[in-house]
Amino acid sequence: MKLHPARLGPAARLVTAAVAAGLALTASGCSLESTAGGDTVKVVIGYQSKTINTVTAGTLLKAKGFLEQRLNNLNNGHKYQVEWQDYDTGAPITAQMVAEKIDIGSMGDYPLLINGSRTQANERSQTELVSITGYNPKGALNMVVVAPDSPAQSIKDLAGQKISASVGSAGHGTLVQALTRAGIDPKSGVEVLNQQPQIGSSALESGQVAALSQFVAWPGLLVFQNKAKLLYDGAELNVPTFHGVVARRDYAKQHPEVLDAFLQAQLDATDFIHQHPLAAAQAVADNSGLAPEVVYLYNGPGGTSFDTTLKPSLVSAFKGDVPYLKSIGDFADFDIDKFVDPAALKQVYQERGLNYDAELANSANPLPGTGGELWLAGQDTTQSVADPTALLRAVKQARAQGKTVRAAYVPDAELGTRWFADKALWVRDGENYLPFTTSAAAQRYLAQHPSGVSVPYDQAVSEVRV
C-alpha cells in the first residue's frame, strides 16, 4: 500500500499519532469526586455521532437521555455526571482510553482491534468488548464509492489509482479485503491517502482521488447527495462486520453499576429503534446533522441488525481480522477471547428477565425488511410493499397523485443490501424489476439471465404495470 507522502505519511500514522497524542495527556485521575451534595461519579463516553451503527450506544442514546435516566434511578447515595465526547473515527477514542480519559466508547470492528491491542499495555487502560451495537452478517456496513461520472465498473478498475480511506477504520479493512480478492496488492497496487471521512469526501468531489472507502453513513450520504455512486458493496465479501462497545476494565471494576446502567440504557435505545424506527432515525438526524433519509437507509427495517449480543459469528470474523493489524503497523498481539467479555451484558439480560442465550443464537434481523419501503413527503409513516416491482408501482401511483416521494428503499436482488431505489441499477426481466446496488452486481445477473434488460429508474417507474 502506497500512502501519499505529502499528506499523511505511512499507513499507521493516523492511528499511531492519535494514540501518541492521547498518551501525552494527563490521566483523568479519580472518577469519584466529593461535593457539598455528596459524592459525584463521573463517566466519560466516547462516541461517533455520524457513525450511525453505533447510535444505540451514542447519538440515539444521548438524544433520548436513557443513560442519565438509568443513573438517576440508582438511588445509591451517589450523583452521576455523564460527559459525552464526539469523534469522527474510533482512533481518537482509543487514544483517550489509553490515557484513561474515556471510560466507555463505541467503534467499528477494525478500530476495536486497535483498541484492544493499544490499551493492554497499562492495567488501568485495558479495555474489554462488552456489547455489540449493530452488525451486518455479510459486511454491507462498509462500501467503496466513486465519482458519479467515473468509468469504473468494478473494484478491479481501481488498480493503480488513488483511494481515500481512514487507515485503521472498518472502511479501510474492507478495502484491503476487497482489493486482495480482486487480485490487487493493497500495499503496492493502489495509492491510499490516509484521510478522515470529511477530507476524503472533498478529495473525491474535487477529483484528487478515484474512490473513497468508508464506513456508514458516508457512502450512503454521498450517493444521496449525488456526489458519488456505489462501486463496491462490502456485502460481496460475505464476512460479518460490526460495531461494538468497549469499557475500561479498571473503571468497570470501580463502578460496575455504571457499566450496568450503560448496558441497560443501550438496550433501552435498541428497543426504541426497533419499536419506533422512523422516529429514531429522525432523532439521530437531528443530533448528527445527517439527512433523515440517509439515517433511515441504515437504521430502518432490513438495514443494520441492532442486536447487543456477542455472537460467535462476529467473534469468529473478528479473529479473522487480526492479521490486518500487522498490515498497518507494529501492534502487539492480544487475546481476543479475553478481550470479549459478555459477563456484564448477560447480567443485564438476567436483570430484565431476558434470555441471553436465545437471542445469541438468533441470527435474524430484529427489525426485518420487506420487499421495499416508500416514504412520502409530509408523512411520519412509511408504506411497505411486497417486492421491488410493487415499490415501483407505489412510486408511479404516488407521482400520478401529485405526491412527492421523500425516499424509497429496496433490497439488492443479489446481496440483500438495503439501498435507495432511485440510486439502484434496475434490470427488467419479464414482468419483474430487480434492483442492484452496483453495476458489477447487475452485470453478474445479466450474464446469467439473457432475458434481462437494464433500464433507468425513471423508465422502470413509467413503464411498470399498475
UniProtKB/TrEMBL annotation:
<dbReference type="InterPro" id="IPR015168">
    <property type="entry name" value="SsuA/THI5"/>
</dbReference>
<dbReference type="Pfam" id="PF09084">
    <property type="entry name" value="NMT1"/>
</dbReference>
<keyword id="KW-0732">Signal</keyword>
<feature type="domain" description="SsuA/THI5-like">
    <location>
        <begin position="124"/>
        <end position="280"/>
    </location>
</feature>
<protein>
    <submittedName>
        <fullName>ABC transporter substrate-binding protein</fullName>
    </submittedName>
</protein>
<feature type="signal peptide">
    <location>
        <begin position="1"/>
        <end position="20"/>
    </location>
</feature>
